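TA notes. Do not distribute before section.
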Amino acid sequence: MIRPYRDISPAARAAAELAYDDLLDAACRARQEGRWRADDQRESICAEARRLGVIIWPALADRVASGARQLVGSTA
């Protein structure tokens, strides 16, 4: 689930930050397996956040996407 940063409690923000590595791993796997399209990357990250039970905000989703691009490459 994605919400504006200001609408997320500090505890929920901390939980999302703790889940960052798991979100990044899932994004990298999706890129490597070809399940990642530029137009749905935020939705893929949101789906993984829901699976992990964390709430994320747009900037965190963008940070995960950027990290996956750097780790796997921008052509995947």
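Switch to the second chain here.
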Amino acid sequence: MPRCCASWATVRRRLLNTPDSTPAASIYTVGHSNQSAEEFLQLLRRHEIKVVVDVRSAPYSRWAPQFNQREIRHSLTAAGLYYLYLGKELGGRPASAELYDAEGHARYDLMAQTAAFRSGIERVLSGIQKYRVALMCSEENPQDCHRRLLVGRVLLDHGVALLHLRADGSIQQEDPASLIGNATYSQPALLPDATPPAPERWRSVRPIAGHSRTDDASDVGQ
């Protein structure tokens, strides 16, 4: 069974700029934002996406109802694409209060260790061997979205290339070193007498109000 969290040896090799082998697979990410359904479909077609994996904890948008679960599933199916909902496994707003810190940030270090998350990652890893897959959330810019900081980071650790589709049609390929630099792993320090990094720093960028899957007030792509 594939591992979901990086070994320290893996992180160390990346930090030391050890040459990487060519990724065996790749995955795309995309944020629907307030595009029309047709604009979104055109973007997917342009990049030959076949499967859209919805990683929103709450698969609804009050600002863009065309991306509510029922509507976007219908649009994708009518266009000959597949829709898969994995928000319960890979969403950024876990239901359990134990997966948040005192400030209300989602603890990615803990989320990545749950059985549900590992199961979701395994399904994605299996799917990308057969199809061109895009992880969908709501934020157009992936910079602070959990599809990049949590799900994407774990997939990178599995050797998967991470490619972000932007609304203008461009593709941004993730730099693994840059992503690892945004959050620390709960692993031994590089030097024996150094202070280990605090695991709670691998967390959501913003506190998540209410800690509820159904709280989608800000449409922030979680």
